[in-house]
Amino acid sequence: MSEGRPLTGRKVLLIILAFFGVIITVNLVLAFNAIRTFPGLEVKNSYVASQQFDALREAQIGLGWRLAVDYGDGELMLRFVDAAGQPVQPAKLEATVGRATERRSDVTPVFEYSDGIFKAPLDLAPGIWEVRLKAYSDDGTLFRQTRELFVKE
After folding, report:
1. Do 91 and 143 touch, CB atoms closer than 8 A?
2. CA 54-88-61 angle, 5° bins
3. Which of 55, 61, 73, 78 makes the best surface tag, with the fewest CB within 10 Å?
């Protein structure tokens, strides 16, 4: 038998307190960081937004637009084409590029249209980015998409 110090009630209490102290501390740190980096609500009232969803979706599908997003050499490129594959120039274009998990790094690029492609100079760090886009047709129909963009090192 080993001749060590006996396991007393005080030692067991300290072990249990240390164990739960670590768990509680980790939970508090994770909860604080989750709340601190929460980007916010997408819509104020999801019920009201859901009432318009089908009509907005059908109008967007009716446009027949497709979107291609590309990034290279410090430039973001967007290309809209119609159902026949012909370039489309929306009447109005709004885009935000940022990370999916937080809004601190969001940028609003300024695009120039040339030869069927919208181009904007943009310096993006490596990783996964989101391109949140709203484009409007000449009659005001909204085309909305969120695209994931992977930037290599």
Report:
1. no
2. 15
3. 73
| CATH level 2 (architecture), domain 46-151 | Sandwich (2.60)
DSSP E strands in 85-141: the ranges are 92-98, 112-114, 117-121, 127-136
Tokens of 112: 């120039």
User: Could you tell me the residue ranges of all domains in the chain?
Assistant: 7-36, 46-151
Looking at residue 44, the DSSP 8-state letter turns out to be S
Q: How far, in Å, are 6, 24, 47, 135, 153 from residue 31 at the CA level?
A: 39, 10, 28, 37, 31
- Picking from 151, 28, 47, the residue whose alpha carbon sits closest to that of residue 99 is 151
Query: What residue ranges of the chain have pLDDT lower than 50?
Result: none
